[in-house]
Predict the 3D structure of the following.
Amino acid sequence: MNLRKTEEVINDIKTLIYSKGYIYTLCMIIYEDFHIILQEINKVDFRSRLNKNEVSLLIGFLIQKQIDFTLPDNPLDVIKSKERTYELMHELHMSLMTPFFEKMKSVHPQKLEKVDFRAEMRTFYGDENMFIEPIFYANDGVYDFQYTDFLERKYRYDKEWLLENRNFDFNNTKVILQRIKDILQEKSKKVNFFSLKEKLPEIIETIKKENPSENIEEHIKEVLPAYEFYQYVNLFSDLSVNESIDFETLPDDAWKTFYKNLIDLFVIRREDFKKEDKIDSFLKNFSIEINKEQLNNHFNQIGDFNLFNAQPILQIDSERFFVPITFSLYEACYESPYYWMLNDKAYKDKLAENRGNSGEEISYEFLSNVFGQERTFKSVKIIFAHPLLYQ
């Protein structure tokens, strides 16, 4: 197996995402990979979809240059870019497994009986590169609402600092997050999503049966783009899902409307919120003004700090804000406040104290529910451990 280096694959990814109109390709990928038909969840092939971290990687690189909203020369360019994205992201995944493959190749069976297994295990798993792949591709292990459930418990002792320095209020944040989620969920209903990835084998079999004498491979290549775009028929102007549509003959104005509405699936506006929501402060804390020089330029590889993870809203203009992953916004609201306070040198000691207290209280709450309050203790100092404890 000839695997390219991760750096080489990332360079190709950057070349792709900086191509003309890639933002529209990315929108289709995000919509299709982050939506499921609940009744068919058992059929979902999650390995064929990009996960949150992979999309965050793409966006992190995308914002390093001016985002090109120029319309593609041909709608088929969007489909080709999608296919190329999945190819490169699969190759990236494989390249990150290279350290594991290399380690395995270095193991000689004839030497195993002489090996110090403890030392060998430390050497094998002690390489930091061994953990990049399993961490990057792991599930999040949490639902978005759990971030808001624990938000106040995590920062209860820092409430004043957050309000005074960032105008960050727990209840207000929850209201805004729910409002954003509601807006984008309502917009998502415009798409007639039918989980094409999972239905593709069935569709191909149907095409083969209906066209037994044709060059099937060529025919499939011709008709599949129509299936892809048909999901988005409501985003075109004056088209009905019940119509027979030839996407190849659609006028330019119809495609312009489609691309505009495709972006709008992920857009919130200031006017969507009430004055008391304090949306301006929220957007200031969690949005990135795109198309600025030297933006996120310290993000070069997996493991580097990605500004998008801390501020997962992209400001398109003074009124429109692009929210590609609502889950990431919930996560940022939970994680980012700690780093805001960490930058305040005068508050660092108090921050550490508060973090310890809130962490202990949350742990106590969990453990006391399991072992009972009479068997769970806070602020315990072990000054002598009886030998029986270690037997």
Remarks:
- Residues 348-371 form the longest helix (24 residues).
- The chain is about 55% helix and 5% strand.
- Residues 153 and 358 are 7 Å apart (CA to CA).
- The radius of gyration is 25 Å.
